[in-house]
Amino acid sequence: MIEAAKQRLVFALDVDSCSAAERWAEQLHDKVGLFKVGKQLFTKCGPDIVRRIQQRGGQVFLDLKYHDIPNTVARATVEACRLGVKMVNVHALGGPTMMRETAAAVKECCAAENLERPILLAVTILTSSDQETLRAVGIDRPIEEMVPLLAKLAQQAGLDGVVASPREVPLIRRACGNDFVIVTPGVRPAFASVDDQKRITTPADAIVAGADYLVVGRPIAKADDSRVAATMILEEMARALAEVDCG
Ligand SMILES: O=C(O)c1cc(=O)[nH]c(=O)n1[C@@H]1O[C@H](COP(=O)(O)O)[C@@H](O)[C@H]1O
């Protein structure tokens, strides 16, 4: 079960240099299935960092959360495919047309250029947002309604899955079924601080709820011993996977 847990664990490379990212990729290569390259690292190092991680045998989740007009997002996502990333995301709030055009462009480009199609995800409502955050931007509907609504739109547009809080996994499963990929940040083991996350659960609860992948950054990066922290998270996930298997 540890190997199955490893395949589902994504480490957030939220660092400010290529050398730091490469050190993490080295240190955690046997503990995580994917390395997430986000806005900070990508802005600092550019696409080269994706290639460097891949050269070390690491799979990459390119987390740039594209949110723009349909043509721009579709073209940017096609470039992500050409980098050979395993996962890439857009914001569901960009709307159905944006998501549909992006899914179609990805499919067409990957077929024409014989590329492996990445898992195309839509971010629903950020895990750092609560109801008050939504109200401040004029959204009055409950988060518990917004998340499955956005997930369903993403599915209808041809995307493979969503990024959401582990708290909303059961709602998404009900709306979109078991084959839809659910990636959950906002994961906090008992030993870690909450930081700026608002809608969190433990790794075990995320697995039991039915999450496919767990994204974890600071609970590993800021731990006194990061390899020990990663091992503890993997063991917790493995126990939960065994529980789900038995149930
Ligand atoms: O798309 C994401 O990965 C993402 C979506 C979301 O709703 N919340 C969220 O925290 N993330 C990312 O997941 C990572 C979580 O990091 P930690 O809070 O340090 O575990 C960060 O890199 C965020 O950018």
UniProtKB/TrEMBL annotation:
Pathway: Pyrimidine metabolism; UMP biosynthesis via de novo pathway; UMP from orotate: step 2/2. PROSITE patterns: OMPDECASE. GO terms for biological process: 'de novo' pyrimidine nucleobase biosynthetic process; 'de novo' UMP biosynthetic process. The active site is at residues 63, 65, 68. It comes from the Bacteria. One of its GO terms (cellular component) is cytosol. One of its GO terms (molecular function) is orotidine-5'-phosphate decarboxylase activity. Substrate binds at residues 14, 36, 63-72, 127, 188, 197, 217-218. Residues 8-233 form the Orotidine 5'-phosphate decarboxylase domain. The keyword Translocase does not apply. PANTHER family: OROTIDINE 5'-PHOSPHATE DECARBOXYLASE. Homodimer. Belongs to the OMP decarboxylase family. Type 1 subfamily. This is Orotidine 5'-phosphate decarboxylase. The lineage of its organism: Bacteria, Pseudomonadati, Thermodesulfobacteriota, Desulfuromonadia, Desulfuromonadales. The gene is pyrF.
